[in-house]
Predict the structure.
Amino acid sequence: MSGRPVVAVVVFPGSNDDRDAAWALGAVGADPVLVWHGESELPPATGAVVLPGGFSYGDYLRCGAIASLAPAMDAVRTFAERGGPVLGICNGFQILCEAKLLPGTLRPNRQLEFVCADATLRVERSPTLFLSRCDPGQELVIPVKHGEGAWYVDDGQFMRLVARGQIALRYTEDVNGSLGGVAAVTNESGNVMGLMPHPEHAVDPLLGSADGGLLLAALVDAAAKHSLVTA
Amino acid sequence: MKATVLVRPKQGILDPQGEAIEGSLRKLGFEVSQVRVGRVIDLELDAEGPNHARMQVERMCSELLANPLIESVLIRLEES
């Protein structure tokens, strides 16, 4: 599929949304490539990386802790440091926090229950590339399904993240006890984002919402630009 | 050398698992005022004496075994 930007989807033992993510990325114009976590390099011409949802290593120790040390994560770290767009969805968000590519950590849901529902998210004022197709204040409906999605940082860091525009999306209602209702957070340069909701499950109105496609299409836009820069 | 690492949620960090267990203990008639749940990691390692062992285990904690943002650790060492 020449002309389409390559988006690498890293597959860990226990990932289960990898194929959904690949399908959805294909639907918004990417050439998705599944990459096994044992690989130490990303495919040539990779324009963006997605860490999919699931239960890598059975959530042993802490969600995402073991996966954050996979060989592929060294390659993802290098890719991110060079400005490459990286999106972590659900377990992928947890992995990015454990890898310290994103601030904070994800704790068990406040209500101690697995939550599986459509969530309404408000787009925050953030310069991140992932919101290039959204407007501040816009509401997106994207499903969540997780047991450990209560994002947490200490108060001082939270204020700094807010001031720097690193909070990208917030739940309009309390979904899991996440600090400040945060659903998505970015790194300081805005090229790495993690979110608990699943945009790959919201790319077709037939399934309830296509709002997730806005985030994924923004990723694909950025992937195309990044491929040009690094080509 | 044997090491025991106690990993616990820091003071002030929400521990819903502990709260759920506390509720169940109350249901059983026990008068508990707080329950916090952590984990124990037992490990055996080669080390040149207790100081070296402690340094190694501290590094293990900061690199993998615990998340310093939300967890505190207590390390106990004994000769195996």
The mean pLDDT of chain B is 94.
